[in-house]
Write a structure and sequence with these properties.
This protein has 302 residues and is α/β, with parallel strands linked by helices. Helix content is 49%, strand content 17%. The structure holds pseudouridine-5'-monophosphate and manganese (II) ion (MN).
């Protein structure tokens, strides 16, 4: 058997050159609480279908990497509290052990590209963690995006990360960053992380122009489109800062680290904001999917 398994619908759409949007599944298994996770996963797919494009949610079911999960497979990942979080290096291990896994931005990008998909929508990518100068904790999302020619739409990175260091690494790794209608790097829950970026695009066609030029040059890195949450939907900045500080305090007290730190901090931010961060997370995701659909359509027409 050759992996990943690509659904007939996705395979056909890719071969016809129709717009396809890849979606990750760590947001389902680890990013959102049950049962909201399953609802968000289904709504995301519906949003893409309603726009006339094809969704390709990517994940691992019983060890099989699937591009274009069927509804029953989505439900299994959403309800399995034992599902693991799989980055690229975990894919062969998850396959051999036949486990269920949510795929990170890195693993999803790897599999989406293998299936010929060009556009991927996520909430926020992973990046450089605070203290990385000594811990070396940097998400494999970054090195994977450096070598995977997709368009990834993300609301920047969460404030739990070292945003300045993440931007430096994006530069080092040759990953073009385009702010969507902004020259401020978004901070996921908030429209402005406090950090500037150098380039913006104002239309899906302008993004497609950069992608077309990248491909003509033979450059293999992803184009990262940094799409801020609409100002009216962002988290109150004081609440945001307080929740973040509390989450870090808890993580330090319990000695949480490694791949567990992201889900841990997010869970505490959700509790501390009484669910407001969850509503923002969902708004961010819907907003990124909408832009990804438009970019996929612009690329299909280019
Ligand atoms: N950022 C978020 N929420 C998430 C993640 C990132 O705001 O759930 C997930 C994504 O799937 C991302 C992964 O690819 O965490 C990065 O984890 P790590 O730092 O362990 O690579
Ligand atoms: Mn890590």
């Amino acid at each position: 058997m050759s992996l990943p398994v690509v659904s007939d619908e996705v395979r056909q759409a890719v071969s016809d050159g129709r717009p396809v949007v890849a979606l990750e599944s760590t947001i389902i298994t680890h990013g959102l609480p049950r049962p909201t996770n399953g609802e968000v996963a289904r709504t995301a797919e519906q949003q893409i279908r309603d726009a006339g494009a094809v969704p390709a949610t990517i994940g691992v079911v019983d060890g099989v990497a699937v591009v274009g999960l069927a509804e029953a497979q989505l439900d299994r990942l959403a309800s399995d509290s034992g599902a693991v979080k799989a980055s690229v290096r975990d894919l062969p291990i998850a396959a051999a052990k036949r486990v269920n896994a949510g795929t990170t931005v890195a693993a999803t990008s790897f599999l989406a590209h293998r299936a010929g998909i060009r556009v991927f929508a996520t909430g926020g990518i992973g990046g450089v963690h605070h203290g990385a100068a000594t811990s070396f904790d940097e998400s494999a999302d970054l090195v994977t995006l450096a070598a995977t020619p997709l368009v990834v739409v993300s609301a920047g990175v969460k404030s739990i990360l070292d945003v300045a260091a993440t931007l430096e690494r994006l530069e080092t790794l040759n990953i073009p960053v385009l702010g969507y209608r902004t020259l401020r790097f978004p901070g996921f829950y908030v429209a402005d992380s406090g950090h500037a970026i150098e380039h913006s695009a104002d239309t899906p066609e302008a993004v497609a122009d950069v992608v077309t030029a990248r491909d003509a040059l033979g450059l293999r890195s992803a184009v990262l489109v940094a799409n801020p949450v609409p100002a009216a939907e962002q988290l109150d900045s004081q609440l945001h800062e307080r929740a973040l500080a509390e989450a870090w305090q808890q993580a330090r007290e319990r000695g949480v680290g490694g791949h567990e730190i992201t889900p841990f901090l997010l869970d505490h931010i959700r509790t501390a904001t009484e669910g407001q961060s969850l509503a923002v997370n969902i708004a961010v995701y819907r907003n990124n999917i909408a832009l990804a659909i438009d970019i996929a359509s612009a690329l299909a027409a280019a």
